[in-house]
Automatic annotation (TrEMBL):
Family in the record: Belongs to the MoaD family.
GO biological process terms held by the UniProt record: Mo-molybdopterin cofactor biosynthetic process
Native organism taxonomy: Bacteria, Bacillati, Bacillota, Bacilli, Lactobacillales
Transmembrane segments: none
Keywords: Nucleotide-binding
The protein's name: Molybdopterin synthase sulfur carrier subunit
């Protein structure tokens, strides 16, 4: 485990996108799973920790249930917070 890192671009929606912009790039250790996305993003934006932790992760346009999917730098990763409306 030589500390290899990869850059991962995460698309953000709703309030997260409004606060941080439509995409952010995070540095994550390799191998990396979808479950590691939220903690990495919380380090960059600690004020949004609750919103980040309540968001759902989608990889390649499919919601992730258990977070154990290994990510590649080419994967499309999105964080989608809960939204309400009428």
């Amino acid at each position: 485990m030589g500390g290899l890192k990869m850059k991962l671009t995460v698309k953000l929606f709703a309030m997260l996108g409004e606060q941080l912009g439509p995409t952010v790039t995070i540095d994550v250790a390799q191998p990396n799973t979808a479950a590691m996305v939220k903690p990495a993003l919380c380090q960059q934006a600690p004020a949004l920790k609750t919103l980040i932790n309540n968001a759902r992760i989608a990889v390649n346009q499919e919601f992730i249930v258990d977070g154990q999917q290994v990510l590649q730098s080419t994967d499309e990763v999105a964080l989608i917070p809960p939204v309400s409306g009428g």
